[in-house]
Specification:
single chain
Length: 436
């Protein structure tokens, strides 16, 4: 059924990800896996620097394409037939982009990636034009600016694919990235688009699960290869360390109901854009595990130190950036605040633990969760003890002292978020992340 593409209510109750959004996310599994494989092959062939740069470039294309759809969908998801059809076209563009990642890594051929990107961007342009047709005043201007910027920049990316490989191409990439990031800033100068804090937090959490899932796959491959090659003792520390790492990463990321913190445009802007570092490092953990496996089995001519660093560096990055972006808002004391940064440093130090480096890193990550929970529990117990004198008796009612009864006293709590309840969140646009 065709509907008017009206903006969604930023305070809408029970706003969750739709099945179409989940399908869209699942298609990115292919693209993330391809980018990770490209990094693995580059490092295994002794081109670590080139591989890291290529991986960062490929992951930007993946992340930005996902951002485009996600922030538009939180504002204008009508879920009618035209919306679904255009979204399916965007999904086709994602798959085309994923198919072009190996050619980009191996031959610096970005033509397939550019083609997939153009498909996605043109589809999103039609979405913004449709939104503009249902808006008025400043909101219409904003939608038209988004449509114009999104339609214009693919021309630059197509030209980028024909530039000679080297410094010129790298500078062109930097300029095009800056232009992409500037589109939302320019578009929302006249009016902001709506966004739903809880819905956005859920969407980011789902994508985090996707990239962490790549690490689980890598750990599974480690066990499989160990059984096939009979080198179970050598690969078991990698598999165990990988599992501990992803379990701890999940716990650290999802302990905070971050939507309570997304109360203004500046905060949401930094949080939304900063997740590039979270997603990129999380996906790189899986690639690092593959490198470590190939090093142990003799398939990759890299040293034990470099193989360990391929896992410990992105793991430390994920923990630090997760703390920086939102986990720290759950920390109520200095001991809680320093746990994750110190864990990141300790994991980097594990790089020098030789063949046990990955297991040590996973153990450190798991230990940080245990320490955080212990500190949290002690703070809770301490708060109850300190509050007990105030709960021993109730005011005199009807000439009789009212004893404290279960459920009637003031129950102290340690908030997981930074402040406000859901109904107090002010519906403010991001001022920079709603395009996409």
């Amino acid at each position: 059924m065709l509907r008017i593409m009206a903006r969604r209510d930023p305070a809408e109750a029970h706003r969750t990800a739709t099945p179409l959004e989940l399908l869209f996310d699942l298609c990115f599994v292919v693209a993330v896996a391809q980018a990770g494989d490209g990094l693995v092959h580059a490092v295994a062939q002794g081109h670590a620097g080139q591989g890291i740069v290529g991986y960062a470039m490929m992951f930007f294309a993946i992340w930005w394409a996902w951002m485009n759809f996600t922030w538009f969908a939180t504002a204008y998801d009508t879920d009618d037939v035209p919306y679904r059809l255009v979204t399916l076209v965007q999904i086709a563009g994602v798959l085309i982009l994923a198919a072009g990642v190996p050619r980009a890594f191996d031959h610096a051929d970005y033509s397939i990636i550019a083609a997939g990107y153009v498909v996605m961007r043109l589809a999103l342009t039609t979405q913004w034009l449709r939104a503009a047709g249902c808006e008025h005043g400043g909101s219409r201007t904003t939608a038209l600016r988004y449509a114009g910027g999104i339609a214009l920049l693919p021309v630059g990316w197509v030209a980028f694919g024909f530039l000679p490989r080297g410094d010129v191409q790298m500078w062109a990439f930097v300029l095009l990235v800056a232009a992409e990031l500037a589109v939302p800033v320019f578009a929302q100068r006249s009016s902001t688009t709506p966004w739903h804090p809880q819905h956005i937090a859920e969407r980011y959490g789902l994508f985090t699960l996707i990239v962490l899932g790549e690490t689980l796959v890598a750990a599974t491959v480690a066990v499989q290869r160990a059984l096939d090659k009979g080198s179970f003792a050598d690969l078991l520390p990698i598999a165990a360390g990988g599992l501990l790492t992803v379990f701890a990463a999940y716990w650290i990321y999802f302990i905070v109901p971050i939507y309570e913190h997304l109360r203004d445009g500046k905060t949401a802007f930094l949080w939304g854009y900063g997740h590039y570092l979270v997603f990129c490092s999380a996906a790189a953990i899986g690639a690092g595990l593959h490198i470590a496996i190939e090093q142990v089995t003799g398939e990759a001519p890299v040293s034990t130190l470099r193989a360990a660093a391929a896992v410990t560096i992105p793991t430390a990055g994920f923990i630090f950036f997760t703390w920086l972006l939102h986990a720290r808002y759950n920390k109520l004391s200095l001991p809680q605040q320093v746990v994750l940064p110190m864990t990141a440093v300790a994991i980097l130090a594990c790089t020098f633990a030789g063949t046990w480096a990955i297991l040590c890193a996973g153990g450190m990550a798991a230990a940080s969760v245990a320490v955080s929970l212990t500190i949290r529990h002690r703070m809770y117990v301490s708060s109850r003890i300190e509050d007990r004198p105030h709960r021993s008796a109730r005011p005199v009612e009807g000439g009789r002292l009212q004893a404290d009864q279960p459920g009637r006293g003031r129950r102290p709590s340690i908030r997981a978020g930074s402040g406000t309840s859901e109904h107090c969140i002010e519906p403010v646009a991001t001022g920079g992340v709603t395009d996409e």
